[in-house]
Amino acid sequence: MTETDMSKYEKKIIVRNIEIEDIDDIMDLWKRCFPGMEPWKREQLESHIQTFPEGQFCVEYEDKIVGTCSSLIVNFDEYEDQHTWNTITDNGYITNHDPDGFNLYGIEVMVDPEYRRMKFGHRLYEARKELARKLNLQSIIIGGRIPNYYKYKAEMTPREYVTEVEKHSIYDPVLSFQLLEGFKIKRINTRYLPDDKASAAFATLMEWNNIDYLPKTKRVYRASFPIRICSIQYMMKKIDSFEDFTRQVEYYVDVAADFGSDFAVFPELFTTQLMSFLEEKRPDQAVRRLATYTDSYIELFTELAVRYNVNIVGGSHFVERDGDIYNVAYLFRRDGTIENQSKIHATPNERKWWGIAEGNEINVFDTDCGKIAIQICYDVEFPELARIAVDKGANIIFVPFCTEDRQGYLRVRYCAQARAIENQVYTCIAGTVGNLTHVENMDIQYAQSGIFSPSDFGFARDGIVGECDPNVDTVVVGDVDLEKLRRSRNSGSVRQLRDRRKDLYRIETNKFPK
């Protein structure tokens, strides 16, 4: 007797997280599931995957995507009772996702009409429940459509309709399914999805409680999350050796550590102080001589970050790569790891005197104090960069700068304060003062370093956490509170991040080879 080939009868079903390559299929699926409603945009789905990949699921059946669901984490108590879909999803981009939140919020489930009644929707809901258990979340909350309500709108209020569905007197393909999945109705929201004509824009706010939730976990709702920053206003003066440079740098790091700082921030191009003993008159050759000290610079700051237990934003330094010179800022974490950010916009002066090449990557770095970004001097004058960094999760933007006059300094300062307001983010600027009398194109400096906050109740008066006296050798130390920042983004007097008209305009980044 010949053995039966079982494989030809198999029907493979896979539930997995969504990937970038799935986006075109998902957009096509939406059109089949919700004709007449505004479909997902590619950039929205890309933002879901970038912001919270674990919360985006799809079902594959015979190598075809037949169902998907999207979600984010929120602290639901921080949202208004009558919130809308746009509010809870940040207009579909979920950049308000809060990894420290307590509730998984489901924002969409769809199953291909040709494959309904095959329990694919149930599999997606089970994936959400398993995620809530895994992340120890209190509950799953959804705003559910009531797509059969249009048939009864003339004779029933939404509440009456929902009651009849609960009693099984009326069948609704969404609400009936959600009730079977164990969700309980909390209330009915009006104007939830304006383009949902079948539901007359109403939605049922429903919740599934995670009975395995353990309140006593490492994830604590913080009253505050203070971060201490030491911005160093570095005195440029003639030195005779790298050892002289080491002594001056270590002094500042020691001061930052004595204040219990989480970050010590040095200015842009403060390593040009080394040029004062290199005796090279041509600026383009001097920067290449300076670049030979890159390894010594990195070794010094790595050792200081670890020894003094301070994360150091090591200003910026000229680095040679493949024959080109870049202006590069380094992050030296106190655990000994290193990151870097090249200056993206070279000033006319940098191109003229030094032939500086421009970087192409907009980076955001994880630290033990949350996500941060570094934008070197001129870069902070381009608002798109800060917006992209904050969309990637940055809570603090560090701005090492080097300016020779008050006008240049004020451009950096005003733009740093504008970025703090526009993006509900903290910014910190650190500049050089003094002069290098024997170094071409680094003759004199002007700075007033500072730490800035958004402008709203609960933050520093005038949006200034602290600032140095201008043009003196000193530091400023200030505390910024990331919990206060998070709450302001959700419930501040103004909410620039949430209120952006992404339906009207958006920022795109091009892909460059590294």
Secondary-structure-based class equals alpha/beta
User: Per the principal axes of the C-alpha atoms, what is the gross shape?
Assistant: elongated
- Uncertain segments are none
Q: State the separation between the terminal residues, measured CA to CA.
A: 60 Å
Secondary structure: number of strands: 20
The number of helical elements comes to 13
Outline the biggest β-sheet: 13 strands, mixed
Strand content range:
15-25%
Task: Write down the overall mean pLDDT.
Answer: 91
Relative helix content: 25-40%
Computed over alpha carbons, the radius of gyration is 28 Å
InterPro entries: Acyl_CoA_acyltransferase, C-N_Hydrolase, C-N_Hydrolase_sf, GNAT_dom, UPF0012_CS
Organism: Heyndrickxia vini
Keywords: Hydrolase
GO molecular function: hydrolase activity
Concise account of the structure shown:
GO terms for molecular function: hydrolase activity. The protein contains 13 helices and 20 strands.
Would you kindly provide a written description of the structure presented here, covering whatever features stand out?
With 514 residues, the chain is α/β, with parallel strands linked by helices. It has helices at residues 23-33, 42-51, 85-89, 120-134, 158-166, 175-180, 242-258, 283-291, 294-308, 348-354, 383-391, 406-423, 482-491, and strands spanning 13-17, 57-61, 64-74, 103-111, 139-144, 184-189, 203-209, 226-236, 263-265, 311-321, 324-332, 338-342, 356-357, 365-367, 370-374, 396-401, 426-434, 450-452, 464-467, 474-481. The strands form two sheets. Strands 8, 9, 10, 11, 12, 13, 14, 15, 16, 17, 18, 19 and 20 form a 13-stranded mixed beta sheet that branches. Strands 1-2-3-4-5-7-6 form a seven-stranded mixed beta sheet. The longest helix has 18 residues, at 406-423. The chain is elongated and about 90 Å long. It starts with 12 loop residues before the first strand and ends in a 23-residue tail after the last helix. This is Bifunctional GNAT family N-acetyltransferase/carbon-nitrogen hydrolase family protein. Keywords: Hydrolase. One of its GO terms (molecular function) is hydrolase activity.
